[in-house]
Amino acid sequence: MHSDCLFCKIAGNEMGTEFIHETAELVVFKDIKPLAPVHLLIVPKRHIRGINDLVDDDRAIISELILTARDMAKKMGVERSGYRIFFNVEKGGGQEVFHLHLHLIGGWE
Ligand SMILES: [Zn+2]
After folding, report:
1. Catalytic pick from 39, 99, 101, 103?
2. Which of 42, 70, 83, 106 has the fewest CB atoms within 10 Å, i.e. the most exposed one?
């Protein structure tokens, strides 16, 4: 837990954020600046700064993030209409919060 990290605070339930889904390892909540009708963030509870900071032992959590994205697409009803999942990496790649998170966007007409 990094006390100055927004997503550590959210995952630690310090911000009153409504979770769409929660497991022992991760939380899912809505992006506050949505880029699409459906825009979820899938966030490990453990602080990992970003993709460049992953180590081999992180294979399990990365798998869980992606499988959770699949489940959340179904839950939000966009699994057949289509969606995108992506990581922004470092400032130049659009990363704004330096705590690993997977975006899921979809729900366009
Ligand atoms: Zn964090």
Report:
1. 101
2. 70
